[in-house]
Amino acid sequence: MVYIFFMLVLLLPVLAGFGKIFQHFIGEIFSGISGLLLSGIFSVALGFTLIAFFLPLNIYIEVIALLVGLAAFFYFKVDIEFWKFFSENSLLFFLLTIITVFFGSYSPFILDHFGYYLPTIKWLSEFGLAKGISNLDLLLGQISVWHLFQAGFSNFTDPFLRINVLVLLVYVIYIFEKKSWIHLIFLPFLFLFSQSPSPDLPVIAISLLFLTEFLNRNKNATLLFAFSVFVFLLKPTMIWLPLFSLLYGLMILRSPLKFLLPGSFLLLLFIFKNLWTFGYPVFPVAVFDLGLSWAPNPEILKTSAQVAAQKTFDMQFTAAEIENFTIAEHIRNWLLLSGIKGFIHVSFILSLLAFFFLALKKKSTITWLLFISILCKSILVLYFSAQYRFFLDVFFVIFFVSVYQVISRKYAIGIFAGLSVFCAVFLSFPNVVKNYIPSFKLGNFMSSFKKEQFLKPSHFELKNYTTHQIGNLKFHVVENYPFSFDTPLPAISPAYIQEDLNAGIFPQLKGETLKNGFLWRKLSAKEKEKLKIVVQGFQQP
Q1: What is the pTM of this model?
Q2: Burial grade of 441 (CB within 10 A; 0-12, 13-18, 19 or more)
């Protein structure tokens, strides 16, 4: 917890400094310290993204960012604004800060933390954006802008990758500045994402803040759209937010089309980043083929699509079975999945129906535009990969719109307290979760509270790997574990090596260094036998 407090004390002024620079030259998205901090996150994340095309996000880049942010913080006298806010707010704010840091100190349990977040951040901090990195490990090709932001502060300021705790504190500051107490109800759910640099937390938190701004008739259409596209850059399944922002600007504010220009630039940056790392405009869909030499092998993409289909049905059916489903079987099997995911799917459909009737009842243009945006996002998710984690944000949005006018400060605090206790029990006693919700597989990766958390956050180390070489690529493979999260680079997860072997291909260096990126080529008969030996090695019990 001490380490997390250090990160907050250092990064809050830095981001506020960058936010002041942003507001000085571009404008204010909304007033208050929370608006400053959000503008700082926006500008620094985009700055790190542009830098990563040319340089690794190492400690030199981090130190420069810290110095510039701190200099701006004092030059623009933002310290006076900070002092005013923190001196005027009650004990409740500081209690919420301690609770937030407490939850952020638990050990990560989201599988993507080890299979995607850590490897991605490691690559970005050591090499930056490597062209065609999806040839090495397909998941690395998606690279969220959130992980670029985290990577830039991972060398010194936040080595335990608890940047999401900072976002939660920005969220709390917004609650107190705007007296929007309903947001307290969502905090306990977000606590479950605070141990990892998961993009889910910032996109949910920021989207809820923006919903408040939309409902309060914020008139800054240009920045509303640009920041909404920024959320899309963090997690593309949040496509409903830029779509809603677009409709809001056109139909509510009657803004001229020029308000789309900054956000459109961000969309072009998103597409270019995907082309650079993945070879196609939108990860992981192989559409609009530009014939780039570093695009992934078609067999690898086909395997990825099959796995995504299986995950849609919680791995309860084979790819062949899913392919032969009729439309009716697709719907029935998805809704009636055994375990907690089937319950979530049914709840999702019922929530959409409830939202439709709410829009009919309210007869509000904003509510209808929001419903249309959520419905479009839902259709896209259901079509491409209807995994429950891709539409969790829909539940938050529908609940928020339904009750934001009726929840008082007193009830919000009471609900927050009850849910926080539940979350603390949930994280501290994982065996309870395993026993009572056996279908919740993440329960197997949760660990109880440890006294060491009072000093530094819990984390997991393995550092067990072997080294091999195929062609011009010398690579490392983790032993007796599925994820290469702390293996030296270049590391390839066992599952992807198996997929390469099945496809008869293997990644190769595109140039002389790892920074130059990767291509794939077919394996020779001798190389295929050598790779089989590698696979047999990590398949041993």
Answers
A1: 0.92
A2: middle
